[in-house]
Amino acid sequence: MAFELRHLKYFVMVAEEKNFTRAAERLFIAQPPLSRQIKQLEDELGAELFERGSRPLALTETGKFFYAHAQQLLSQAAEIKAMTKRVSQIHRTLSIGYVASTLYGKLPKIIRLYRHEYNSVDLQLHEMTTVEQIKALKEGVIDVGFGRIKHEDQNVHRIVLRDERLIVALPIGHPLAENSDSLDLKSLIHDKLIVFPKAPRPSFADQVLSAFHDRALTPKKIIEVRELQIAIGLVAAGEGIAIVPNSLIGMKRDDIIYKDLNERHAYSPIIMSVRAMDQSEEIRNLLDLIYRIYDEEQIPYVRGTL
Ligand code: BEZ
User: Fold this and answer.
1) Which residue has the CA at smallest separation from atom 1 of ligand 1?
2) Which of 21, 27, 109, 154 has its CA 20 to 30 A from that of 51?
3) Pocket flag, ligand 1, residue 162 (CB < 6 Å)
4) Ligand 1 pocket: which of 270, 273, 291 to mutate (most atoms <8 Å of CB)?
5) pLDDT tens for each residue of 228-269
């Protein structure tokens, strides 16, 4: 007999309740079959999972190891269930999570065109961080996420759509705004650096800070703020400077000057995340449309697949 998910569920309940009677009650089964199932599991594993005679029931060292993995497997099974439910709905809806900075890039055009070409699909938009997007994908709240952080999760497939250049936002009248055409990071360390978002981490803030650290540079002072709009507002107020994605150039303000950053690695990726193995038509059409826009606008990219 190989053990099954049911055995894991029973074992985790007993481990958490530290008592067979209470665990059996919560599982709505009688105690003797529960004890039998745990015994079967121990036989199958060839190891004792609970200390014999302990009150309350305690896990052996092997039991603790197995518990950590059993919990992980059960939560993965729950995620698969939620994700499959979502995929199975004959959904002509597409729910998209995005980080605010992508709104200054191609996102508005993508949404406009998608609505125009696939008007029977109900598009829903949710502003959320990359970390929130991963959770929302697994819970079936969104179907696609657009973010900037490379978050590892075996249930989520990510495609780097393109690498976007980073630029510097300076307040009007700043000495660096007047001189050279492009700036390097070294020339920025004497200013207060405004980074965003402050939480959750890792975030775009860490991409900017790593760019300095990778060159063994330390900005004079770092101000962490909640979001892009606040960073831009504070730059306009002369509180400091900010490093932002190139698409911010489109957000013209007469109190801010944008300067190119002359650094080889000064890029921030735009990443599309979907549930692993979700190849629904709505998502395929969305990805094709994005690449079509890149082709039309001659935006460099490396094509990825679902
Ligand atoms: C882009 O600017 O390339 C982009 C932004 C949001 C979603 C997809 C692409």
Assistant:
1) 106
2) 27
3) yes
4) 270
5) 999 999 999 999 999 999 999 888 889 999 999 998 888 999
